[in-house]
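Quarterly update from the structural biology core.
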Amino acid sequence: MLALIAREIRDQFVYIGACCSLSAIMIGSAVSLYVWSMAEGLFLFSAVLMSVLFIGFCVLGASQMYADRANRISVLLSTMAVTRSRILAARVLVGALTVLVSLIPFVITIVVLLQIAIPPVKFYSRMVWEISASAILTGFACYCIGLLIGWTSNKSRLILGTLLGVVLMTSILVAKGFGPSVMLLLLLFIAAALTHTWHKFTSVSL
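Predicted structure, tokenized:
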């Protein structure tokens, strides 16, 4: 499994690196906003750049499946006594780690800056937890959308699907806000998307 994960990281290094680099830029920009006494703009800034990062997660998932379909990577690996379930598991683990490594440092930075700039209210801890968990789940849901749309061989559909998928996920946050109901909805979507991807990936000949 470690060899599969290492191979996946190597194959998708450009997209993983882009997500992590964008996260570093977001952290640096957030700190700069605070230093320049523009803490009130952190919310809008965070929402805009996080949406861009969500697109990056979606592109990562789509790239994993599109590259497999185009280069028949899993077909080759399957001849080496490696099951497709393990191949997919390695890919999903790499995707999940990319989401966590990209989002968690940024979320921590925003939380610390807001805690310094704005006195915490009584329900501050619960609010921070709900927003952070919802953001991370949304990022992973966008990645799962990428896995789903990566099956298409039409590049225009791939691009359009990526944008629509991210808009759908971010719209859920805008419409319903943060909280247990949104997290449950995102978890259900993630479970359904991964189940569908697993079934298609393991049963359809690439």
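Residues 9 and 94 are 7 Å apart (CA to CA).
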